Each structure stands twice: as structure tokens, then as C-alpha cells.
């Protein structure tokens, strides 16, 4: 059980952080699994080109969703720093920096998607445009996983922050730390043993569970603190 509570101001920040976290989860999963995965097959350049050219709006919507995710991630990084800095300023600052680096890398990797689209849209002027475009789509995937290396470190730090702070139950800290290990392992496989990435993919379900649980905890934080404040007033 947590041994301290947030001030009303920080409780409001926690609720806003939870809202941003929810946006990140929805847009991140929506862009990668709901919108982009049905279009991009890194093992088939022609099928990928045909799918994207047949659904350009879906492809652009995936990019837009990733942009929203990146903007929300930057805001969340700052809010979490404000929430935890009184408990452990060094760790809170480190977590913010690593999360912001992840955000920059993932946002920058969107340029690879845009370049791939430009290649396909100018296919008449390029030889073997589908294969060239697929290289850029693969580069985006690698850039995404590079960002997750920094996010994995962020998750480990956040897990330690939550565990030590007493503001939230320690189970949330343990979940975030476990998510960090999964992100680091998954990114390592992408770069050093790509043939194992599909086998490892189900492990990301743990990250979704841990982050969604912490997101929901942040969302209800303000209500919980308001109830506690009311109880203290009544007692007085």
C-alpha cells in the first residue's frame, strides 16, 4: 500500500498524465497494429506497395496517430517529472530525459515512412520502387525499436520511482520495471537476432498490461485524493 498521498495540485497533474497515457496507448497500438500492420509486410515488397497505394488514407492516418502519440509522450514525460521530483529529483529527471529521447527517435523515424511513401508515389520515375520503399519501412521499424531502447531504460527508472515513492502501490512499479525489461529484450532481438522477433512478440502483451494498469491508476488518482481530503475535513 502507498504510504503517502499526492497534493491536490499533483493529483490533478496525475489525472492529466493518465489521460495523456491513455491517448498514447490508443494511438500507439492503433497506428502500429490497427493501421500499419495490415499494409506493411517486410517480406513482400510488391504486396506492401500495392496495399499502401490502395489505401493511402489509412497509411497517412497511421503517421498522424504516431505524431499525436509523440506529442502526448512529451507532455507525459514532463508531467511525470513534476509528480515524482519531490520524492527523487535525480531519478525523476533521468526518467524524463530517457522518455524524451525515445519520443524524438520515434518521431524522427516517421521520416522513413514519409520517404517510403514518396518513393511509391514516384514509382514511374524510379526503378524497383517497391523494394526501395520497403527498405525505408524497415528503417522505420528499426528506428522505432531504437527508441524503445531508451523507453526501456525509462520504464526501469519509472518502476524504481513508483516502488520507492510510496505514492502508488508497489505492484505498479514492478509492472513498469518488467515492461522495461521486455522493451530492452525486444529491441536487442531486432538488432542482433531478428529471426526471433516474431517468437518474442507475445511478450509485449506484458507491457500493454503493465502500462494500462498504471495509466488507469493515474486516472483515478484525483478522485481518490478528493475523497481523502473530504474525509479529513469531516474529521476536523
TrEMBL record:
Keywords of this entry: Membrane, Transmembrane, Transmembrane helix
Keyword hit for Isomerase: no
Regions that span the bilayer: 20-39, 59-84, 96-120, 146-164, 171-193, 199-220
Entry protein name: DUF4386 domain-containing protein
Organism: Aliiroseovarius pelagivivens
Amino acid at each position: 500500500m502507498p504510504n503517502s498521498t499526492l497534493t491536490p495540485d499533483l493529483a490533478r497533474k496525475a489525472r492529466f498524465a493518465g489521460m495523456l497515457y491513455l491517448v498514447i496507448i490508443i494511438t500507439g497500438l492503433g497506428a502500429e497494429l490497427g493501421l500499419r500492420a495490415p499494409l506493411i509486410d517486410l517480406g513482400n515488397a510488391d504486396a506492401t506497395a500495392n496495399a499502401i497505394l490502395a489505401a493511402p488514407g489509412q497509411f497517412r492516418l497511421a503517421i498522424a496517430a504516431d505524431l499525436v502519440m509523440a506529442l502526448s509522450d512529451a507532455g507525459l514525460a514532463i508531467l511525470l517529472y513534476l509528480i515524482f521530483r519531490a520524492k527523487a529529483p535525480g531519478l525523476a529527471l533521468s526518467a524524463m530525459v530517457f522518455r524524451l529521447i525515445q519520443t524524438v527517435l520515434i518521431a524522427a523515424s516517421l521520416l522513413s515512412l514519409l520517404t517510403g511513401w514518396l518513393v511509391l508515389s514516384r514509382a514511374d520515375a524510379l526503378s524497383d520502387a517497391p523494394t526501395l520503399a520497403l527498405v525505408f519501412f524497415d528503417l522505420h521499424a528499426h528506428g522505432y525499436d531504437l527508441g524503445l531502447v531508451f523507453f526501456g531504460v525509462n520504464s526501469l527508472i519509472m518502476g524504481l520511482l513508483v516502488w520507492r515513492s510510496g505514492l502508488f502501490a508497489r505492484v505498479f512499479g514492478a509492472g513498469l520495471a518488467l515492461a522495461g525489461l521486455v522493451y530492452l529484450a525486444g529491441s536487442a532481438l531486432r538488432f542482433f537476432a531478428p529471426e526471433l522477433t516474431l517468437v518474442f512478440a507475445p511478450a509485449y502483451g506484458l507491457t500493454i498490461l503493465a502500462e494500462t494498469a498504471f495509466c488507469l491508476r493515474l486516472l483515478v488518482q484525483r478522485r481518490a485524493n478528493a475523497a481523502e481530503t473530504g474525509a479529513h475535513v469531516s474529521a476536523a
